[in-house]
Amino acid sequence: MSDTNLTQGTQRSFFSTLAAIAWSFVGLRRKSDFDRDVTALNPAYVIMAGLIGVALLIATLLGVVAFATR
Hints:
By secondary structure, the protein is an all-alpha fold. Helix content is 77%, strand content 0%.
């Protein structure tokens, strides 16, 4: 892989960061996408997206437990 492929698109939007974090939660990510994420993701966006992902995961689990215990 050349260095020009890694430096393309040095800034990704918040929504593309959300998509990258969502795929990371699932555990399905191509190596090429991971390499691009390492150089292109904004750390502040990653932290915010991670917190949103964790909040959604906890809310989903609480909802499932509440539904199952009725």
